[in-house]
Amino acid sequence: MSPKAPITQDVMTIPRKLPEGKVNLVGLTRDQLRAALIDHGTPEKQAKMRTGQIWQWIYQWGKRDFAEMTNLAKAYRAQLAEHFVIEIPEVVTRQVSEDGTRKYLCRIAGGHEVEVVYIPEDDRGTLCISSQVGCTLTCSFCHTGTQKLVRNLTAAEIVGQVMMARDDLDEWPTPGAPKDETRLLSNIVLMGMGEPLYNFENVRDAMKIAMDPEGISLSRRRITLSTSGVVPEIARTAEEIGCLLAISFHATTDETRDVLVPINKRWNIEELLGVLASYPNVSNSERITFEYVMLDGVNDSDDDAHRLIDHIKRHKIPAKINLIPFNEWPGAPYKRSSNNRIRAFANIIYQAGYASPIRKTRGEDIMAACGQLKSATERARKSRKQIAAEAGLDGS
Ligand code: SAH
Ligand code: SF4
Q: How confident is the model at residue 23 (pLDDT cuts 50, 70, 90)?
């Protein structure tokens, strides 16, 4: 066994077969979709064309009912409905923040729940999606980290979050209507619950579907994967997904990072920086985002700011540093740095020639801000009714 094996990596079998024996077509790659069609009676000669048609219905037009796939023969539609379903996570509650941020609690197979957050801005709309129920890592400032991993999400459940949000935003185009370029949902960040690089294949397949030009069609530059630093999977992310990368950096010495982001004990700062320096897409237009949570008296000194710059310069990494004011959660062992401290820290970085935006806290009133997500089952069970009542929803 490699001494550098991930701390804990729970890879679960994908429950493709649904209880009634039907196969969910959502989340299948094009090749898998083609194979599924052939398996269930589509003649091989036709399979490529049918795959393209069905793909478009599902991902371009957002259809869930085979009966609506009007360019397929009626008998064939009925045959499809016999064997397949088109299923995405079900919305349990939807809360809308004062600032327009929407937080969805979604139910997935097995009764588990994940949170998805939509953040509207002037020039874009970003969907923050989850890759696991809970997280096996235990970053000490993260609420999700206090919840044990329950399971990895399937590719269907990951891309299904995007489809669910498009449903809610009413953003599926109508066949035949003129192309509308305005996109309410224009960006995806894998910054919800879970460590996406501990669920690599499912995240990859889901993002490939989101990028496919004959479907949801988001550019790879509009997808950002955030990782706490699973070093062996970072090069693979560049090769097999090709999206932008964000790193939960958060500390400038191994001593502090070991505590804040314990995966650092497995792959330390130097090993992480080494692999980032060679992230194939790194160029000035595709900088790596260093996420840095501002914790009062822990990682926010002037010396930290200088060390951070030194790390990045030494490894010549085109970078921007995203400063995240710590979002408190019940029982959190840290406090947010003062605004003055955050500004002073940002200024040192800026003076050194790097962009250092301070992330605006969004959706805090509905616990939708970074690191406040902890679904699940636990909290939701206790207070789902209450949450729904507060948001003026009926909770169904
Ligand atoms: N597991 C991945 C992605 C999910 S976390 C990762 O760690 O990168 C998304 C971002 O929110 C990470 O940068 C994470 O460090 C940050 N975060 C977690 N808890 C936070 C909190 N309480 N306040 C602010 N940011 C937090
Ligand atoms: Fe997991 Fe990311 Fe939270 Fe760390 S910060 S516990 S890796 S979700």
A: very high
Q: For the structural domain made of 19-86, what CATH number should be given?
A: 1.10.150.530
Per CATH, domain 90-385 is 3.20.20.70: yes
pTM, two decimals, is 0.89
CB 101 within 8 A of CB 95: no
**Does the pLDDT at position 368 exceed 90?**
no
Ligand 2 atom nearest the C-alpha of 136 is: 1
d(CA 361, CA 370): 8
How far apart are the CA of 233 and the centre of ligand 2, in A?
Answer: 16
Question: What letter represents residue 196's amino acid?
Answer: P
302-314 and 269-277 helices cross at what angle (nearest 10)?
40
Pocket of ligand 1 (CB under 6 A): 141-143, 191, 195, 226-228, 248, 291, 293, 324, 326-327, 370-371
For residues 141 and 334, the answer to whether their CB atoms sit within 8 Å is yes
Distance 59 CA to ligand 2 centre (A): 30
For 281-323, write each residue's pLDDT tens digit. Answer: 666 668 999 999 999 999 999 999 999 999 999 999 999 999 9
Q: Atom 6, ligand 2: which residue's CA is nearest?
A: 145
For the chain, the structural domain boundaries read 19-86, 90-385
Burial label, 323 (beta-carbon count in 10 A; 0-12, 13-18, 19+): buried
| Nearest atom (ligand 2) to Cα of 144 | 3
Nearest CA to ligand 2 atom 4: 139
